[in-house]
Write a structure and sequence with these properties.
By secondary structure, this protein is of the alpha+beta class. The chain is built from four helices and six strands, in the order ββββααββαα. The chain has one domain.
């Protein structure tokens, strides 16, 4: 199975970027592609989600979700952490598998896994969960 693919779009020119695409295989036989864009300084600045045929409802919903997450990424790390926390436990009838990231119970859960990896939020999310358990 394919792992994260690093698209070497980086050059020495400012404004150009590098992206990483994560391929998740669905239990229904379909593929989910989540691409995260990084600027020339290594800062995550965008997300793209591709599932289903262009123009389909699921494709458009994934596209809209990626746009909302991209806005959050560009503005506030705390908001992105809340997004991850909200989406990580969502489950559906289709299970998504990634070679390195493991199993995700839904598309939102897969997105949360990618955000955790790309933004290195694992420690902050663990602190948040620990604080909730103590309350």
């Amino acid at each position: 199975m394919e792992r994260a693919v690093h698209h070497a779009l980086r050059s020495t020119k400012p404004g150009e970027s590098l992206s990483t695409t994560y391929l998740f295989r669905g239990s229904a036989g379909n593929s989910l592609y989540i691409t995260v864009g990084v600027d020339e300084y290594g800062v995550v600045n965008s997300m793209f989600i591709n599932l289903g045929a262009s123009g389909s409802t699921i494709h458009n919903v994934c596209n809209a979700l990626a746009r909302v997450i991209s806005i959050a990424i560009q503005n506030d790390k705390a908001t992105v952490l809340q997004i991850v926390q909200t989406m990580e436990d969502v489950s559906s009838e289709v299970v998504w598998i990634h070679d390195d990231l493991g199993r995700a119970g839904s598309i939102p859960s897969a997105i949360a896994l990618v955000l955790l990896r790309q933004l290195k939020l694992e420690e902050e999310l663990e602190k948040l969960h620990t604080a909730e358990e103590e309350e």
